[in-house]
Design goal:
Shape: globular
Structural class: alpha/beta
Helix content: 10-25%
Number of helices: 1
Strand content: over 45%
Largest sheet: 4 strands, mixed
Number of strands: 8
Distance between the termini: 61 Å
Length: about 160
């Protein structure tokens, strides 16, 4: 088949249409937790207008076992690096292989005043049926943030 302008545009159009699909598949694979892990992402932080900061977390349970409850003690640090307070955040009912969204409002707090959420401790982590789970520990949980607020195990 001779190379013509028509075959060039057909080849170009075909590659232009498939490249975004390949990139999308790679992005999806990269965002999924490693086998058996619990990915916990701070997805957004927005002021509510009522003096509160609304936090949206996305929990992705990559394990073969559901979680009845994952509860964490979170240390909050402000933009000056000063400790602000401790929070308890509960994430109930995250099924095996499932993704779930959670919303928390921090009263009397502007989102712009928060620099870091530090996972200070795992308070509770139970699988379906009440059995303790290792998914929520430092080796099992993968914290991340899509916001300007850092979220993880160290500052």
């Amino acid at each position: 088949m001779p190379f013509t302008r028509k075959t060039f545009f057909a080849a170009f159009l075909g590659s232009a249409l498939t490249a975004p699909l390949a990139a999308s598949a790679q992005d999806t694979a990269a965002s999924e937790p490693a086998g058996g892990a619990l990915a916990l992402e701070l997805n957004s932080a927005n002021d509510t207008g009522a003096g509160s900061c609304r936090l949206i977390f996305v929990a992705d349970n990559g394990a073969e076992t559901g979680l009845d409850l994952a509860a964490f003690q979170i240390a909050v640090f402000d933009t000056a690096g000063d400790f602000s307070r401790l929070l308890r955040l509960d994430f109930p009912g995250i099924g095996a292989g499932r993704t779930k969204v959670f919303q928390f409002d921090l009263p009397d707090t502007e989102c712009g005043s928060i620099a870091t959420f530090l996972v200070n401790d795992t308070l509770e982590c139970t699988q379906s049926g009440g059995t303790p789970s290792e998914l929520c520990g430092i080796d099992g949980m993968q914290p991340s943030s899509r916001t300007g607020i850092a979220f993880g195990y160290s500052r």
